[in-house]
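User: Predict the full complex structure for these chains.
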Amino acid sequence: MNAPLAHAEPLVAPGESARSIDARISRVPLDFPHPVLWWLGFAAAFAVVMVMLTAITWVFVRGVGIWGINIPVAWGFAITNFVWWIGIGHAGTFISAILLLLHQHWRTSINRLTEAMTLFAVACAAMFPLLHLGRPQYFYWLLPYPDTMGLWPQWRSPLVWDVFAVSTYGIVSLVFWYLGLVPDLATMRDRAGPAWKRRLYGVFALGWRGAAQHWRHYERVYLILAGLATPLVVSVHSIVGMDFAVAILPGWHSTIFPPYFVAGAIFSGFAMVLTIVIPLRALYGFKGYVTDRHLELMAKVLMVTGWIVAYGYFSEFFTAWISGEEFDRFMVINRATGPYWATFWTLITCNVIVPQALWWRRLRRSASGLFVVSLLVNVGMWVERYVIVVTSLHRDFLPSSWGMFNGTKWDWALFIGTLGFFSALLFLFVRVLPALSMTELKRFVVTGEETE
Amino acid sequence: MPPPFPHPLLRRDDEFAPGSESWPEGMSRRRFLELMAASLALAGLGACNRPPDGTIVPYVVPPDREMLEDALYYATAMPWDGYARGVLARSHSGRPTKLEGNAVHPDSLGATDALTQAAVLALYDPDRSRAPRRGGQVASWARFEDEWLGVHRDLLSRHGRGLALLTEPTTSPTELRCIHALLDRLPAARWFQHTALARFDRDGRQDDYDFGRADVVLAVEADFLFDHPSSLRYARAFASRRRVEGGRVNANRLYVIEASPSVTGSMADHRLAASPAHARRLLAALGDLLDGNKPSPALAHEERRVLAALARDLQGKAPNVVCVAGESCDDAVRDWCAARNARLGAACVTHHALPAIRSDADPRSAGDLGAAVQAMQAGGIDTLVVVGANPAYTAPADLEFARAMARVARRIHLGSHVDETAALCPWHLPEAHFLEAWSDLRAYDGTASIVQPLIAPLYGSRTAAEFIGFLAAPAGRNGYDLVRETWQHHGGADFEAAWVRWLNTGVVDGTTASRSKPTAPAKAPDLRAGASSSGVMLTIRPDPTVRDGRWANNAWLQELPKQNSQLVWDNAVFVSPTLAATLQIENGDVVQLSVAANGRSPISGRTEPARSAGSTNPNEGPTVEGPAWIALGQADDCVTVSLGYGRTAAGRVGNAVGFDAYPLRQSASPWAREGVTVRKLGRRHALVSTQTHFAMEGRDIVRVALASDPAGTAGRPPETPPSLYPPVEYPEYRWGMLIDLGACIGCKACVAACQAENNIPVVGKEQVGLGREMHWIRVDRYHSTKPGEPPVLHQPVPCMQCENAPCELVCPVAATVHSSEGLNDMVYNRCVGTRYCSNNCPYKVRRFNFLDFRAPADSPVNLQKNPEVTVRARGVMEKCTYCVQRINAGRITAEKANRRIRDGDVRTACQQACPTEAIVFGDLNDPAARVVARKAEPTHYALLEELNTRPRTTYLARTTNPALAGANRGDAA
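Assistant: Here is the predicted structure of the two-chain assembly.
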């Protein structure tokens, strides 16, 4: 990795040294500061995990009919949640891989956390395609395995592409994340007190000694993996977009979907990063590493992707209007004025109007302001998927088959349950692993001679 | 711790210790084995029934032609309001599984209605009465017979005085013979008849119409296409005048005056929504027009226009015209129609009289339920035998049947269910279903059919004839002997040969009654008198699916969307949009209907006594509470309720569903009331309909063609949009379907037939409310507001079997694939349930097993299942298969004969049931196939063809024949 380029503002607060970085970051898993807060938070999240497990058990016992789905709206919360979580999972790899390749060095202070977030979000997302099956016990029929009857998946279906896209993405993200962790795990091994901790970190540190050879291999592999992960950032959500775009349904059948979904994914991913990072840096004293400048940069990404998403909306309306297709036109009008008008205007408000506040620099540098914006964008992006899934389905071609969808308590239990699952995993992550990359941060320590 | 019993090998000296030969608890091993052996033997015996009465012939020689696994068809007949509907009952391994129309039978012509399709489920109804009951406790027939012997001796000694027999009116010659035998034996006994759905006879004659010949039809409250013993025959004849053939149609014109939307009303070219009182005004004005007088100006502009056109048509097309008055019309309106028919000369051509077929006016009958109640209240009755009827539920409220019945000491009930009447009778006896007993019935035109059983009685039940025969002569005869005895002298010399012929064909030849000229009053009565009502009227109708309540426990019928509203699992108070706006009522608002206690019965002018049934305040008239349903086509000055709901002892399906409208009924005017107050109560009741949006939104969904120029008005001809892929060849068969919307009357027989054929589960009201009904074919109902279009349009929608099927593309596991014959096959075993196929189906014809919708494994309804069709598990998608099992059965037959499948060999269940032959199915590769010819008509179109799905199921446009361009929306509120 190259030496830091000149920056207008340092990426690591002045006064921080390699030693202080190591100490401050490794202190969190090793010394366990704020145990009461951590335990309270984890207990709350874990309770919600129990809700999720109950919801999953019940769906296995009774079937997907416990949800609000029906004919015509045969997909509901499960697919909405899937797309939303996968979208959130995009920020991690985008930050780690694409920004790395683009030499955006500010990524270093958040890449570890966002990669973890990606993994956890993908774990949440991957649950839904399985759970939403009518017969989940046969999920493996979507895999190309040597079936005795010679059956093979139906390759024209984007759901099969999904299996590969999501699983590849999950695996590459995991490897990328773990590889980046190796030098830090060695640091943890070296700093840990009890022998069992040293041994445990040592096992996962894969014998890292910081030798020049190690660094050479490490950086090369890291760069290669970044290169591999980059197309995945685009492919996963493109394919998720094609889940819809391949269908002939007005509101789904749209060529804009793949790029618009990718932008939406990064948009929601960055929002989620902000939602997590802002409280975390306050709690553990990471303000020296995740500076206001980082927040501002993330806010800018949020704004840009927000505009791409807004363009996606606009393009959908424009295409519907210029095509003259009555079904497409009706779909747009129905979204805005039909029974689900409130969800539509929520999404416009949260995803298009609220991000415009980020034109103000003060807001971009205000942690609390950004936190609110990020929460609203998270809500907006969930609602956007809900609107795409539900409002397209509920009134399609033949008015005789129009219907309504309402989430049941089990829909909500499962969705909220995955939020708990995601939070619980994050709590465990900050408890046992260094939440920021010590290795990479140390490169940006501001010393007198390195500043301009 | 030592083991309680040492291992035998470890025993040495103490092997035969004292006491070791016997079980310590007093039960010896030997005794134990004895008991086990005895239990085993007796358990086997216990499973035995008494041997059947008739001779058992073992299958030394299997039945003709068929292997046991194949379906066998038997001709029999189903009672429909007492009349015969001829059916061919299908039997699989001795289980009746489906009823199909009998082409030879005059009231079937090969078709069925939805009730007939559902009748097979009634056989396996788990709530059927399974045993005689004495005081609510299970008893036996033997015990009843013992008891009856004493009663009978006693009755004989007084010539039957004090015995009242209450039956439903019947057409069964055997049952009638048994009743007459009872009356012969016990001459002082009295026989009453009760039905909630009385039919009208004029001078002992019943009206019959020839709709195939009528150019102009005026129907006044007459739902002849749907609610009539001959409705299948009428629908067939009517549709023959709506079918575009060779680009032309010799269309009739139907005018309907009715208060509430009906099946017949939905087919009208001009429909006037009018309360019965207003209908009289309209008819009076029509009479004036026909007589050349100036009609009263009190009518709306639209009404005057339609009536003028109607008068012109009636006079111009006479004598090929007919005025039909419905069962609920009062005498004056019926007389008016008969007189007009006679005046117009219609009586010679299209209007006939048949002798009374049903026993309503049998000279030996002592009268109806009113007479029975009078007799009971007078105290002259000490033994009441109710056969089949359920007066405790269906009696008009003013009769106070239950109170009268309580005065009778000995009350005996024969019925299929332990119903409301059974609850009032110390003795209840189970009545046999028509598929498990011998009987006979007559069609509306008198044609008799032998009802033959397909299965031994499931629960030791008996038929009405057997039961009444036993009451008369306790020696008892079985049904088979009774029926044969009835027909002994009809068959000529060779009775046995004739008997076999009758059983084979399903009709007894030479029994059709001759039609004659109807009698009519010389002058049409003046309808202006009594037509001066103001305020809201109430009309009461049999429910389209559960009728008077007898089908209330039939889950198929409860879940069948009502033909006039698409509602399921409920009845409702129908109000017009205008009235609803005035009263600020929305769908599902519970309203209270109250009839003023001193309110006159409509028209008759009789004042009715104050009564309290169904009302809390004895000073008020009866009140009923039910949810409102805003019905397009409902008259503004009239609300309508349907009977058959709010039952308390129907069974687990029918109990506490809907509200009971019987308290509003008066024996003097069973079908209408005046002076009704509608009050919104502020409560809500969830009404569930399978369709929630009735407008076509200007989309090209149901096309309408004018009968005068079908080709010119049917819209653009079908075209196949281009495709990037080469066309697929279907060298063998290429199955396709055509649905003629001109002929479809929206009766939903196809939906019920599909349910019976394809093992389609019932999901219940809550699940339908969630949008999870499972019907593979649905009949969409659209309300059109376009000038020149009928206001109600029906469109049956099964799977379109698209050649470019969008569902196939998106299934990740190839669970829905194309067959070599172009069927879009659904492979249940392969389905993992992503439901993507349903999302991508533009017709939304796919159905998903969201939950486990199968009946419990021990339910008798499983016996009805068609073994040729998989019962689907939870989490699996399903849809119309074009009855692929029937195609394959046809293929097997054809291949055995080394030939191709011929046109007509394979008939889908929906096609088979359709009374109007609106559904045509066949091989599109066969140039001689009827489906190919029909698809060549100029009104042919494909639904959503612009999506390039290339559907195999296509449509012919709805034909309409309005007299006034743009004015056929007579019911526009």
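Residues 8-142+152-447 of chain A form a domain with the Formate dehydrogenase/DMSO reductase fold fold (CATH 1.20.1630.10).
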